[in-house]
Amino acid sequence: MHTVKRSLQELCKMNNLDLTISILSYNTKNLLRDCLNSIYQNAGEYRFEVIVVDNDSKDRSVEMVEKEFSSVRLIRNRENVGFSRANNQAIKKSKGRYILLLNSDTVVISDALTEMIHFMDTHPEAGVVGGKVFRPDLTAQASTRGSLDIRTLFISFFGLKSLVPPVHRGFVVKLLGPLLGKTVRSYVDYYEDENNPVLVDEVSGVCFCVRREVVEQVGLLDENFFMYYEDTDWSARIREKGWKLYILPEASIIHYVQQSVKKAFDKTFVARCKGICYYFKKYRDRRAILALKMIITSALLLRIFFFSIYYPFVKRERRDGVKGKLKGYWEVIKFIVQEFPFCT
Predict the structure, then answer these.
(1) What is the pTM of this model?
(2) Between the CA atoms of 266, 303, 231 and 245, what dihedral angle is there, to the nearest 10 degrees?
(3) For 309, which of 205, 206, 250, 340 is 20 to 30 Å away at the CA?
């Protein structure tokens, strides 16, 4: 008896599914419910499946999914395995021609799913497409950051972006565009064109629709990234294989930013910084790595200095939040000095 090996693409054609939606769940029960409802209410004509991977939530998210969404395929982890590993679990079990990574704290608007699938069907050069992301107040949120760059990280860690209100960023980009460079322009101003697909260097993992053929060619998410910048890494690897990445303004979603992590600032901030360091170690030279370490340590020492002065004047109910930030800052500095030393 012969065993016939079929590619994932062939298996998907047999299953006749257009889209697999992978949702990572971690203590966002009510938001997850809203997300799933929005998917089923706006599914459109395409065939799809939803896989929820729960990273050991303590808020009865799993029980809610089992009770209210019987068609959802549920993967239960006994620990928090991070973003990359959890989504990889779903990808390995997926059956769709396209795979959409979607945050649990999002709401799909109207025909966003249909628009993304149609775009991918009619643009064979597109390896990835992301939707246009809005905050709950319907102001635009970044769906792309551009490649990780020393200049953008300097802006981020020293808080310079907050000096320019969102309503004025387009004007700043037009005024200083040639001086800022492409990467900084994309970081400051999210969307170059409100009406047409935008070619980008990176698509955010908040809403990341990837062609199955791309996954087979490029590989899964890098599980060395626990949380943050795994989407940046995946985007870079996909571009290296010649695929194009787009943001599609017609596909809109609302994102309730970082709801699953906002109560644990110290842990998430440390994970973010470790992700940046790993990315630079993977892609950048020694000079860039040294510059990164200097930016992070100097910015965090400056924050610690100001928070130490500010702390006695903080209201009692907000002091735990300040302590969490200080703890996170010190842990990152310790990581850079001990585990990611300046001499490497």
Answers:
(1) 0.84
(2) 150
(3) 340
